[in-house]
Amino acid sequence: MKYKTIFFLFLSTFLIGSESIQYLSISEFQKSIENSENKKVFLKFYIEKINELDKETNSIISLYSADKLYKSYVYGKNKDWQGIPILLKDNIDTKGLANTAGSISLIDNFPRNDAQLVRNLKKSGFLILGKANLSEWANFRGENSVSGWSSYGGQTRNPYNLELSPCGSSSGSAVAVALGLVPVSIGTETNGSITCPASINGVVGIKPTVGLVSRYGIIPISSTQDTAGPLAKSVLDAAIVLQAIAGKDPKDKYTHSIPSDYNFDALTRLDKNYLNNKRIGLITPNQNAPDEAFRLIEKVKQQLKLLGAEVIEVSFAPVPQNFWSSALFVLQHEFYIGLNSYLKKSKSKMQDMESVINFNKSNSEQVMSFYGQEYFIKSVDSAPGKTIGDIRTEIIYQESLETLDYAKRAIDSALVNNKLDALVGLTRNTAWKINYETGDAFENSWGNGALSAISGYPHITIPLDFSDNLPTGVSFMGAAWDEVKLLNLAYSFEQYNNFLPRPIQDKN
What residues are labeled active site? Predict the structure, then answer.
């Protein structure tokens, strides 16, 4: 496909100044649709072109019709962000579209209601374009899974190199933004599912504090770690979306922990000089990391200093011996509870995890051609009321949660003991080759984010630099409810670094 030719045909119709619609900010996109004489034609043409542009990357799993979008646009008239198209990861309930988690077992799962975050987006005027592909079941079905692949949506591919992984599980959400198919999207994260694809595809990703955004209407994995967050081309655009979706929800008790003085308006009041006089804890790569990792972290260090920050290198105490096994058990235990609760309220024929397992077995050629469903089976074995050995799973679960408290203690101690404003480090290594025989190549990866995910603390990644023609990201991490501070730090760094990768494939 000759992407440049396609873009020319598309973009020649909709130009604003010297910038094409592909790379417009959400405010600029809003102006473009407002200035269009025929909104319906605009939307029809837009959908046709993004479908054409997405043929090789396969980031989109389903779309509303142009007529439906036009009606939604009219409904959102005079809202803050009227007409801004946004894609949602296909594990978020959205009326009129199946919510599949990428699994053909849920093709009949048409939600009765919108997820709370979808309601919030609509209230702000955002135009729900459709659903983005993902790693099936948010990468928690089986071992040796392949990021970006789902039995319903197929394989999402990295826009910088189609043979490379887009990471996951919010693969389509990141790729669509990277290609400029939409200005912003929504992903979800349990452990790295926003920040990894954001970093690898060269976009901004925000994993908020667990509880800042309602999880009601999202197919769950973990009640203690799941959250939704935005992906965008810039920190400001991501902040605008975060502001729109954040807030308390009586149907998600975790949102009740949002501090009473949390300033939602401050999320978009960003200061480019914010890094001046701030104390930043720098997380350096471990000694086994490649030279490239040290080059990148040195670049981060020097830029922080140039912006007036005081940089202090930090390290964490070794993780408890059973930390990672405890982390997995918590996910399995919570997954069983959460998924069963979701399915019982759904319109799907799948009413519990066991029925999904049986469906996968009966359709193994299509569903499990590359990897199995070990996490499903282990989740059943880890369910409440079961025993492992002579110990009840409820006891193992509580002990595991206590072990995982290390993540919060590690971050809090580093911040307090060193009087830091935030922690900064590399998000992760560049993309790896898609391999259906071995699955994702996480074994030798380097980067940060696991502690933020397990603790439920916020994590923002922004594009940093190219490494071997592939984008890398830098991470800003902090304590619970530190989004305003982290957004300002990331914005300040972004404005100086001015690195905006643009993956246009031009293939003959």
Answer: 89, 169, 193
